[in-house]
Amino acid sequence: MSKALSHAKIVPRRSAERGHADHGWLNTYHTFSFASYHEPKFEHFGALRVLNEDRVAGKSGFPTHRHRDAEIFSYILSGELTHRDSMIKKGQESAGKDDFYRMKRGDVQFTTGGKAKYRMNFLNAPT
């Protein structure tokens, strides 16, 4: 094992043991302290800030929002999620307004937030 990770330990945490919030359109479980969930023993894990299990209601999703200096990993367990972001070249925004990536069950997506990336995610299926 790498010296840098010699202290790392994988500890399973079931959904019921994690922080939880149900916003109607979003049912989410937080592995680490996040949003209104605060648990001191589940914070300060170096660069790793968030590990959430998000269940998005059909025909809804995350509105356009900003990420800065973030690496985002998305794995689709079920359904279909549409992802759009602000990486369209300047001056071509209207031409590329319908550019998107549709993710399906089993798909993995890595997104780099960089200095100021905007993104939105929308669940296409009704459930």
Give the topology, please:
Layout: E1 19-22, E2 26-30, E3 52-56, E4 61-67, E5 71-75, E6 80-85, E7 101-104, E8 108-112, E9 117-123
Antiparallel strand pairs: 1-2, 2-3, 4-9, 5-8, 6-7, 6-9
How would you explain this protein's 3D organization?
The chain is mainly β and 127 residues long. It is 0% helix and 38% strand. The chain has no helices and 9 strands. The strands form 3 sheets. The protein has a 4-stranded antiparallel beta sheet with strand order 4-9-6-7, with no helix packed on it. A hairpin with a 3-residue loop joins strand 1 (19-22) and strand 2. The radius of gyration is 17 Å and the shape is globular.
